[in-house]
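BACKBONE GEOMETRY TOKENS:
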Amino acid sequence: MNSIDLHCHSTASDGTMSPRDVIALGKEIGLSAMSLTDHDTIGGIADAAAQAAESGIDFLPGIEISAKFPEPGTLHILGYGIDPSNDELTKLTKELRGGRDDRNERIVKKLQSLGIDIQLQEVLALAQGTVGRPHIAQVLVNKHVVSHVQEAFKKYLGQGGLAYEDKERFTAREAIAMIHAAGGVAICAHPVQLRLQNFARMRQVLKDLVDLGLDGVEVIHSDHRPLDVKFLDSFATQYKLLKTGGSDFHGSMKSKVRLGMARQRPIPRAYFDAILARLRK
């Protein structure tokens, strides 16, 4: 098997497996290359890279940065080949972590104001690391406030939910510049999550990002239908952009998402090799 996964999350952000265990699972299922792309943090990169070296898996340090975008869409920028020791990147990810922590406190207070018996300490204990909304959702499930995580997001934690709070975000320009400054390439993650009306509108938004310095688009993703993949592949070819792909694996937080697969599609090794070639230039 010569497939890869360039979009994975660990306990360093909102996944349920440690960085080492994510990579070890990749080795177990036969992946040849991986990237750990935790949300707004590089905290898991060192452990993931060490495990990849031990497992004989090619590895790219990664990150997924949340950027400002009109609701109901969300814009995430993936960074590949970043230098985790870059001072500016370290500083900015600490700022993002602080903003995330502040949002968690505000969400818990909103839930309490709705009469829900929940304490921040319970969420911290469950997460055992970086805390995100999925951990709050799991506490709500454990307390039988909701029946499953998806219900928690729909009713309380997602956009429009009773306890929704946004977090601090960079502009797309800032996110792309931060990735470039750290020596990486910037990729638009899962473009369907922009929630645009049609492919014509998606083309315009992606072209605007290309004008800001975007290097590529995530063509294959667990949320992408065959028509999405076809459009994004064509768009990337037209603008000579890097093509990437990944499962968006979160462990049990997204139990239907399998590492190394995106809607039953494997991710081709050629994507990784092309990124590596661009980075070497």
About this structure: The beta strands are 3-8, 33-36, 58-67, 75-80, 185-188, 216-221, 242-246, 261-262, 265-268. The chain has a mean pLDDT of 95. The chain is about 45% helix and 15% strand. Residues 87-113 form the longest helix (27 residues).
